[in-house]
Amino acid sequence: MTLKEIEEFISEESPLRVDLTNSLEELSAAARSMRILADYLERHPEALIHGKAGPRR
Amino acid sequence: MAKPDHGGDMRLRFIHVKVFCAVVLLIWQWSCAHTESARFYVLNSLPGVHSENTMKENPAKVVLGIGPIKLPEYLDRPQIMSRSGGNELEYTEFHQWAEPLKDNFARVLGENLSVLIPTNRIYFFPWKRSAGIDFQLEVDVIRFEGSLEGDSFFTVRWTLYGKDRSQPLLLEKSTFRQTPAGKDYEAMVSALNQTLEQFSRVVAKAIHSFISPQT
Fold first, then answer.
1. Residue B101's closest CA among B122, B71, B123, B125?
2. What is the DSSP letter of B111?
3. Interchain proximity A49–B27, CB inside 8 Å
4. Which of B26, B86, B182, B185 is nearest to A55 (CA)?
5. Which residues, including other chains, have CB under 8 Å from residue B104's CB and lie 6 or more apart?
6. Where are the alpha helices (DSSP H) in B33-165?
7. Pick among 3.40.50.10610, 4.10.520.10, 3.40.50.150, 3.90.950.20: CATH of B39-211
8. pLDDT in tens, A7-47
9. A37 alpha carbon, distance to own chain's centre
10. Which end of chain B is less enclosed by CB atoms within 10 A, N or C?
11. Which helix H or strand E contains B89, and what residues bound it?
């Protein structure tokens, strides 16, 4: 690979970079979902059987 | 003698498992029907679309970069948060943000500013170097919350940079307060929405004060 090819490869418009950014965003979204699920189950483990409890108000 | 005993033991165990499964399934089916469906909320941007006229009268070729935006960790959840006591927060499982609040917040702020300045050239962090940003708005949200009983608050520390990133043009802390029209989540979110609009107006005014002398 020449230097120019490498430059094209990592430039701001390169498809690789866009794809990589998108995948990282997807990954962080997935991690966020897992965190929220774990957080909810930690507080309400019974939700697995009972479903979510009704609103208090 | 040992063989038939073993078989009977197995059969008994199978029946136990079957009964257990049936009971679990029954409870499951009975209870799942009771989960209420959640309601989802979004912040909206200002209704005004920039008309051709205002764009011609005020051809502000401002390129505005928005971000990074920082939100407190306790707001980074789908559940809508309301303050129930001085230091106590309450998350509701049945009233949720339709998308991560940070994304919603950023987009609405961008849309509002694009209407108020007006400009079409709004970029969100991280932008490309070729964007050629004239102004950068850094937002650090300190408080963005309401309560069902009282007012909604929005406290924000914001920094405005010009082309020179090393020296901020403005470094301000603003607080906005809005009394909701009702006592439900819809009213609370709408009040929060209005505080964000107030903030957009303040920022647009500040940016105008920096561009008017040149034009």
1. B71
2. H
3. yes
4. B185
5. B42, B43, B97, B98
6. 52-57, 101-116
7. 3.40.50.10610
8. 888 787 788 888 999 999 999 999 999 999 999 999 888 88
9. 13
10. N
11. strand B89-97
B102-119 per-position pLDDT tens digit: 999 999 999 999 999 888
B188 alpha carbon, distance to own chain's centre: 13
Contacts of B35 (CB under 8 A, 6+ apart): A51, A52
Q: Which of B103, B98, B122 is nearest to B112 (CA)?
A: B122
The domain segmentation of chain B, as residue ranges, is 1-35, 39-211
CB distance A52–B92 less than 8 Å?
Answer: no
ipTM of this complex prediction, to 2 decimal places: 0.75
Determine contact: A51 vs chain B, CB below 8 A.
Answer: yes
